[in-house]
């Protein structure tokens, strides 16, 4: 099967997920054409998964497709955007047609679940690697960013940390089934002062948010929700959770459970307190527990 | 230098090219935010370059950056779109900082030349590979597609074929300096009935256009502009030219030189005539001279 026939197969598997609301022209031309409703901004992000680094080289295609979409949509969730359009660039060695078809099915399933369209892509021979560029819409000026946290804001996370990490260690398919917090992100527009998704790790991503906002934070370790499979210190450092980490001065009732874990403070120091005493977060340098990753 | 420090370096090198008209939020958050003016559609495309396949593994970073942007913008040119925003996903082995800095400079130079912003990206360790997703705006309903060619339309190309191919063989840096025909693409809105850029090769891309339009074509080999370094048959088959191939019922005066090379006909057959006799285009199968690539 040559490149073009394989692309036709992929598009056939995507089926109606190759189109959708706002899609004026889907896969098959030099570019896709999409609409952005008047009064809305477009959020654009890209994230890459490399075989042997972000997933095992023998991972099933459908799971890789699901994860590739999920991690990108998580970035849109952190912006409070409504996920809409994706393009997918896949490089794969000497075409393994069943694997690529499974990849397309995984992509289509995740796209259906999150109501996004796969409007185009690229297929090339190369090391197994997938880059997705994901697009979401958000009412003008309403996007959440990392830079709005202010001293006195409370710090929240949207779920238990360590789930993705322990799924990875256990080779559990849930590792691939990233559930981007799109509904929560949307509910946080006009509520959260800053937001980020936890991909690198809680402390690392909290530092990104604090740096962008020009503030520090004080976290109470005992308030941080941690899944049973990992200890609290690992949970602070491991990535792959794709929960939202956000700040807010006041939180109205939300449909989702969120956990208050600390407070934004003046300065630039991020402190985690265990029974009132600060943990040493920096054994590996200023970014926190990066040596765990 | 860790991943985040390297990203900071890249963004510093991009400088003002990390922003620009319509860029509401550039690199550094979970996603970029861009504006699409009311009444405009957004064209979205993605294309990947893999070391060892699309460029030599020892190619200079600046040239790879230039080419990665150029080939993507060429797809926007073929849609008649105005290039605006790009995100860039780079995977590279154990960070070669000078190479990555050169890559960022090449990207910035090309972005400045074509007036586009690099609004975000991703950096990961992996085999050397770059995927760009490029975005352009085009007045609602005015985009050029592959599907509008009608029998009787003339077929045009925007420049000599074989230039990219011979530059590649000669290891000439011009191979990397793809000049997307953005101005011509814009001038063809409302003029061309169909358009495509020549990346796979003249015959192959003409077939894509004809298939999308449900038509055939008759090309006069002697009318096809060919660079001195290659013979006419190679020029029909080799890719890498990134000229526009388009059809039009009538052509007003244009600022750019274009070459009339044939006519769209009913049916689905693409024929190239040499002194009135059809060439055998299919030694390697229905896609034309793909074995040359």
Characteristics:
homodimer, 293 residues, alpha+beta, 60s Ribosomal Protein L30, Chain: A, 2 domains, seven-stranded mixed beta sheet, four-stranded mixed beta sheet
- Compute the number of structural domains of chain A: 2
CA-atom Rg of chain A in angstroms: 20 Å
Largest interface between protein chains, with number of residues from each side: A-B, 62 and 62 residues
User: How would a textbook summarize the main sheet of chain A?
Assistant: 7 strands, mixed
CATH class of the largest domain in chain A: Alpha Beta
Would you identify the CATH architecture of the largest domain in chain A?
A: Alpha-Beta Complex
Task: Name the poorly predicted regions of chain A.
Answer: 284-293
CATH superfamily of the largest domain in chain A: PurM-like C-terminal domain
What is the strand arrangement across the widest sheet of chain A? 8-10-7-11-9-12-13
CATH level 3 topology of the largest domain in chain A = Phosphoribosyl-aminoimidazole Synthetase, Chain A, domain 2
Structural class of chain A: alpha+beta
Shape of chain A: globular
Task: Describe what this molecule looks like in 3D.
Two copies of one chain form a homodimer. With 293 residues, chain A is α+β, with helices and mostly antiparallel strands. In chain A, the strands form three sheets. Chain A has a seven-stranded mixed β-sheet with strand order 8-10-7-11-9-12-13. Chain A folds into two domains: 3-139, PurM-like, N-terminal domain (60s Ribosomal Protein L30, Chain: A, 2-Layer Sandwich), CATH 3.30.1330; 154-292, Phosphoribosyl-aminoimidazole Synthetase, Chain A, domain 2 (Alpha-Beta Complex). The first copy, chain A, contains seven helices and 13 strands. The interface between A and B is large, with 62 and 62 residues. Strand 3 of chain A pairs antiparallel with strand 2 (32-34) of chain B, so a sheet runs across the interface.
């Amino acid at each position: 099967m040559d490149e073009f026939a394989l692309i036709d197969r992929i598009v056939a598997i995507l089926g109606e997920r190759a189109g959708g609301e706002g899609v004026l022209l889907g896969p098959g031309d030099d570019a896709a054409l999409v609409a952005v409703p008047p009064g809305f901004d477009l959020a654009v992000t890209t994230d890459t998964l490399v075989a042997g680094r972000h997933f095992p080289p023998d991972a099933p295609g459908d799971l890789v497709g699901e994860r590739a979409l999920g991690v990108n949509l998580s970035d849109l969730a952190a912006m409070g955007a409504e996920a809409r359009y994706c393009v997918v660039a896949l490089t794969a060695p000497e075409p393994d047609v069943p694997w690529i078809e499974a990849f397309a099915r995984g992509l289509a399933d995740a796209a259906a679940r999150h109501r996004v369209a796969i409007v185009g892509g690229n297929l090339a021979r190369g090391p197994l690697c997938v880059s997705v560029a994901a697009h979401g819409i958000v009412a003008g000026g309403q996007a959440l960013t990392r830079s709005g946290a202010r001293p006195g804001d409370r710090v929240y996370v949207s779920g238990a940390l360590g789930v993705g990490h322990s799924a990875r260690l256990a080779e559990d398919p849930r590792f691939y089934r990233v559930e981007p917090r799109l509904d929560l992100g949307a509910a946080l527009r006009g509520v959260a002062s800053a937001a980020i998704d936890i991909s690198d790790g809680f402390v690392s991503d909290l530092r990104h948010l604090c740096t962008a906002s020009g503030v520090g934070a004080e976290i109470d370790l005992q308030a941080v929700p941690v899944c049973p499979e990992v200890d609290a210190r690992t949970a602070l450092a491991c990535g792959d959770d794709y929960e939202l980490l956000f700040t807010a001065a006041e939180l109205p009732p939300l449909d989702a459970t969120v956990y208050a874990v600390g407070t934004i403070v003046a300065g630039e120091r991020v402190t985690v307190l265990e029974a009132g005493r600060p943990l040493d977060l920096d054994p590996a340098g200023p970014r926190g527990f990066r040596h765990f990753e």
